[in-house]
């Protein structure tokens, strides 16, 4: 009997090919926070757990029905009103604590397609209240300018490694951009944690779809 050996990488590609896909017209949402959020805080979308990996500013995207309201809850308590999203678009829902309550703000990132598979897609979110943010390459050109609070700007870039600097008011922080490949999507978040400004980044990922 002859057995065909399949490499783990090839098996992963087969899994992607035959994985269950979201219904056509789904919306894709993730959650990010403004300020400190406790490690044991429980986030839920439509009563299902949504985790944020350590050192990440946001969760992975989750596919949801675009024709039904989405329920977001934190530690078992509903946050704001149910939200309905547009189909075939990506959103980052920003949550912030206001006293004993939580507020939400949905940032529409637009469709997820990349204009060029030869480039990488870079997104920059300003989650620092009270100022407009600028992102530039250290000792180099500006990448994004005048990014208002709770908004995002994006652009396609050539895959490159670089040291990035973000300024917002009197705050100035930096982050080394990891190696990006053609077709990668990467998000940068300017936030506050422990009273200090923080520039963090993560590759954009979507959860494996599960029928909910």
Descriptive account of the structure:
There is one protein chain. This protein has 212 residues and is mainly beta. It has one domain. 5% of the residues lie in helices and 46% in strands. The protein has one helix spanning 8-18, and strands at residues 27-34, 43-45, 48-50, 62-64, 72-74, 77-78, 90-98, 101-110, 120-126, 133-137, 142-147, 151-157, 162-168, 171-177, 185-193, 196-203. Strands 4-1-7-8 form a four-stranded mixed beta sheet, with no helix packed on it. A four-stranded antiparallel beta sheet has the order 3-2-5-6, with no helix packed on it. A four-stranded mixed beta sheet has the order 12-9-15-16, with no helix packed on it. The model is unreliable at 1-19 (pLDDT under 50).
Number of domains in the coordinates? 1
Name the helix and strand elements from N-terminus to C-terminus, one letter apiece: HEEEEEEEEEEEEEEEE
Number of helices: 1
Largest sheet: 4 strands, mixed
Low-confidence stretches: 1-19
Structural class: mainly beta
Shape: globular
The neighbouring-strand order within the major sheet is 4-1-7-8
Averaged pLDDT, please? 84
Tell me the Rg in angstroms: 19 Å
